[in-house]
Amino acid sequence: MKILIFLGPPGSGKGTQAKRLADKMKIPQIALGDILREEVRAGSEIGNKAKSFMNAGKLVPDEVTIELTRLRIGREDCRRGFILDGFPRSVVQADALDKMLAGKKWKIDRVIYFQIPEEAVVARLAERRSCKKCGAVYHLRHNPPKVAGKCDACGGELYQRDDDKENVIRSRFEVYAKQTRPLIERYSGAGELVELDASKPIDEVNVKLAAIAVVP
Ligand code: AP5
Binning pLDDT at 50, 70 and 90, where does residue 167 land? Predict the structure, then answer.
């Protein structure tokens, strides 16, 4: 059983690394942003509620994300562990997660903090492209698809996220600084936090991450 939490600013590479590590460790990547975007695409009640928050770069209300996480970690494929990519992002969410895990007698193994300066990620996000079908993430320069506009994994169409516009990116950063950054101290105090230099190239970050995360 391995429970990992990926914490860090928008564009720090959480999703890119979570996908690779999850494949390697054969545990699911639980990406709240992907789950919410799927709900928006499906036009569900949750999606309709979440859409305006996401497009404004704000956090979707805690009760929504807490319930989605609770349901997701209750699924069979999470029994061997999972990577939480983008949850918790507020103190209320972190408290709720503690309760969920305590109820199952599970505990967090590591909280990986993706450390990177803001200016570096603004440039990354402007050139990010994501797959409409499977959610795979690309970068036009650092991690381009083999065929322009098409996903290597499933052939799906690549698109630019609505919240990757510069003014929304700035607002996501403000939200991160105010609501999510305080969690660094919380997990560091609990001895669970490990810092990762997320400004290095993708493969280099991946090697460092594996060394931190895949320990017995
Ligand atoms: P979410 O989708 O989780 O967005 P985020 O946290 O802002 O993170 P990103 O997906 O932007 O970045 P990332 O760190 O995963 O980086 P990536 O690997 O893609 O959430 C979106 C929205 O959903 C939120 O704003 C909120 O509204 C809502 N939401 C989600 N969770 C919530 C919660 N718990 N509570 C409330 N609301 C919630 O990489 C970025 C780019 O850089 C890519 O192009 C990639 O190819 C490239 N790249 C990655 N690593 C490197 C590297 N090392 N070098 C060069 N390029 C790199």
Answer: confident
